[in-house]
Protein 1
Amino acid sequence: MRIAFELLALPLKLEENRISVIIIENRPFFRQFLSALLAEHTDEAGIVFSVDFEPLKFKGNITVIDNYNNLELSSGFIKKIYENMELFCFNELLEETFSLKKEIISFTDLLLSCYDYDFLCKNDVSLTELFKIQNIKPNIKSSQLLENILEYILLIQKYAPQKLFILINLHAYFSNDELNAFFYEITLRNIRILCIESCNFEKTDFEDVTIIDEDLCVI
């Protein structure tokens, strides 16, 4: 996998078993670059991700994580989990699933027959809608922030596999000892990570670093 943009003379290769890092010391360019990633407007900003030299669509393939204290899951991702749970119910809990549906339909029929107005309703129960009503969500609540980030990445990779995760200013939050353990787990699972940093730092053994300095020169 590769990332290319105007300042890079050659595309930067993003390896599975290494952590790629781009340090952007020029703050206006850092803001511009980050805004393009968060808004998923990479094409307009001239940022191109590719696999086997074929351009890769950003949405659905790349996840940007910039708020480590609030790891939100999109409604689309939650829907994928509900669909997976529904399939599990029909494969592993078929008898219980049909029993539940029957009870809900019977209760609804009883309610409408007793109520003082004529109503219509569906004659089937959607499990995904039921899961949504119950507000079923993954429980990510480790006391260790970096463990939460790892669990978050692994959860997304299980239900909606991504080609790349982009982490913003990770070194501002964690020590090298913490990151070494985190990067070990990431590389062990062949997950591609790109770190975007705004300040220089002492790199870990897992990282390959490219620097864009104040004068927008690439080192």
Protein 2
Amino acid sequence: MNKLIIYDAEDYSNTRIYYLHPDLGYDTKNRDRITPVVCEMQSVSHEEGSSFESAAISAAHNKFANLSYSNLIELTMMNGDALVKPEELEFGQVADIISDGESYRSILTGRERGKNTKLVFGTVRLDLTKILRRQENG
């Protein structure tokens, strides 16, 4: 999820939209953001004396703060795998990957299709892609 739409539970016409950026920062500016868009909606209530704005900031913080996708996880599976359904996963989608009893939260950043499908998770790949593009452009 990289776009969070927050509705005021007392007045649904009052909204705030937060965007997750490639550096894992987030704010309300629709620029330099992770694509494709994977959106989530949430309503928040605020106590008397507090504002919707502060409730929205808190909700965005709970959703986006402390994200760390700086890993590189590659999973190879058969094309058309019925359990994982690799062709249905969207770039930017967050996944929990379990290996040896440990759970790793990561983000889908690549897919390679050949005889099998390889799913690539983590921002390490995004950083490498940026470096390679800079080298190609001189």
